[in-house]
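Re: the 105-residue chain
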Amino acid sequence: MAGRLDRDSEGLLLLTDDGELAHRLTHPRYHVPKTYLILVEGQPGVSAITALRKGVLVKGEAKAQAEVERMAVEPDLPPRPVPVRENTVAPTTWLKIVLREGRKR
């Protein structure tokens, strides 16, 4: 299997018996782009977007830079249940993030 989904993720899992293909798609050495559409609370400012583009630290380890774009319109996605937080009506923003690093989380 090439790819994985975390608990709060939706997306494509590619099932294959071609080990070389799976390796080339998932190994960080090949820098295969992975595109994520992410809904975040609030409206990230320029500094937050810039920080994501430069890369972030996770458990003290630097993660690769990302292409980050604020989406002007909501993406056309299939309907899905959206968790609602009580007493919160925060604005949300869709971001398109492209990673070329294949590390877990």
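The chain has a mean pLDDT of 79.
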